[in-house]
User: Which sequence fits this backbone?
């Protein structure tokens, strides 16, 4: 079968698909259910979801040579474990079935296409482990300037390795899951004792995450040139942060309660295959990196990222526009560094980029930066201001790659802040 999946002129017989986040050139993976369908795998096309379980049962996916129906499961892990050849084959088969002029699937349209408006989206993965990186030089520099004004903005190791920490997989939730304002210890300057209570500096972190689709044994390293064999694709990610809790606790071992209360993952995962036309060069790395971190070719992606804040009962205000291409450390380098000591990876692991900030202040990817540690209030459409998040505020992150007459969208990841529990 000829691979035409990234042809910008390709059209689908699904009405209106080109003018959405999910044209035929995209076909992201997710897990959905309806009032009559149990959770199962699907691919987004326009305003619909292709029910991959239904395709499998009707024999349309026999060419994948599966030993069982991995699409009837409530997570994508079993399918992802099949490897890159199978990932690409699924996208080619579904693309061919949906292409204008191919009527093979048309008699089954009602049973294989589910309106997204009728679907409930689920966390698409069973996530064994989660790592959060710190890969935006603009973000790291801004934080350094705010908290270490009399020192170099970047710490000595930052340009030599992708800094990261191991987070808490159990508190990663799917988009649309609301959460309570976290509580913890904070310490004010000049005080002798910390106090306990709800965070007063609840923040967002505009991030993207990549998803592991192939496991390794302990002791194996993944070189930068092998990223496509191990990474299925990218998704939107919001790593909510309690800055005042984090500031008190993070020395000497790093983030803990200020980070592990909630992280939001979008329901759709866009494959690296679909993102191939949007690869771009990242920032110049100076000084030269060590050999195991060297890459060849474009490794970043031109993905426009937007953050909207919606007050309770109000309308959304765009507070940030950034881009994945600004990341100093790319996903190949992140994965290579993560495994250079022999650390094994598992199918379904999630690796987040860290806050993605643009060079200009309108593109700062956290409220900490946008309000410059609370000194420059952010103006919203309704006339109100924010330095950090208030209860009942909703944050929505969207992302897309702009192609020639189409866009590869990531949907959105959203969440609302509920008051702290007693």
Assistant:
């Amino acid at each position: 079968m000829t691979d035409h999946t990234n042809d910008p002129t390709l059209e689908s017989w699904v009405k209106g698909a080109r003018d959405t986040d999910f044209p035929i050139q995209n076909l992201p993976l997710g897990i959905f259910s309806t009032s009559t369908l149990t959770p199962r795998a699907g691919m987004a096309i326009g305003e619909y979801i292709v029910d991959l379980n239904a395709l499998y049962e009707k024999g349309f996916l026999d060419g994948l040579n599966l030993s069982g129906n991995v699409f009837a499961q409530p997570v994508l892990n079993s399918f992802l474990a099949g490897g890159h050849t199978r990932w690409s084959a699924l996208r080619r088969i579904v693309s061919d079935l949906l292409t204008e002029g191919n009527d093979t699937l048309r008699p089954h349209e009602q049973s294989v296409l589910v309106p997204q408006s009728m679907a409930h989206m689920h966390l698409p993965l069973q996530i064994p482990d989660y790592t959060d990186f710190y890969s935006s030089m603009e973000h790291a520099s801004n934080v350094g300037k705010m908290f270490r004004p009399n020192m170099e903005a970047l710490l000595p190791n930052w340009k030599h390795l992708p800094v990261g920490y191991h987070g808490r997989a159990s508190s990663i939730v799917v988009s649309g899951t609301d959460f309570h304002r976290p509580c913890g210890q904070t310490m004010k300057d000049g005080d002798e004792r910390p106090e306990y209570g709800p965070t007063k500096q609840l923040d967002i972190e505009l991030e993207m995450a990549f998803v592991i689709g192939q496991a390794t044994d302990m002791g194996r390293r993944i070189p930068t040139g092998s990223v496509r064999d191990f990474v299925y694709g990218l998704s939107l990610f919001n790593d909510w942060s309690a800055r005042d809790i984090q500031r008190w606790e993070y020395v000497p071992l790093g983030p803990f309660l200020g980070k592990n209360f909630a992280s939001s993952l979008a329901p759709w995962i866009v494959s690296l295959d679909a993102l191939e036309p949007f690869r771009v060069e990242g920032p110049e790395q100076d000084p030269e990196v060590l050999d195991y971190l060297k890459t060849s070719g474009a490794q970043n992606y031109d993905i426009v990222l937007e953050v909207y804040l919606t007050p309770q009962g109000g309308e959304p205000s765009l507070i940030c526009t950034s881009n994945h291409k600004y990341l100093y450390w790319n996903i190949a380098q992140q994965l290579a560094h993560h495994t250079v000591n022999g650390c094994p990876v598992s199918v379904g692991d999630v690796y987040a980029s860290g806050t993605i900030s643009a060079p200009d202040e309108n593109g700062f990817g956290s409220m900490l930066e946008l309000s410059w540690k609370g000194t420059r209030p952010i103006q919203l459409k309704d006339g109100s201001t924010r330095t950090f998040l208030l209860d009942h505020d909703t944050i929505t992150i969207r992302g897309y790659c702009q192609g020639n007459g189409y866009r590869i969208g990531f949907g959105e990841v959203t969440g609302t802040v509920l008051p702290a529990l007693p």
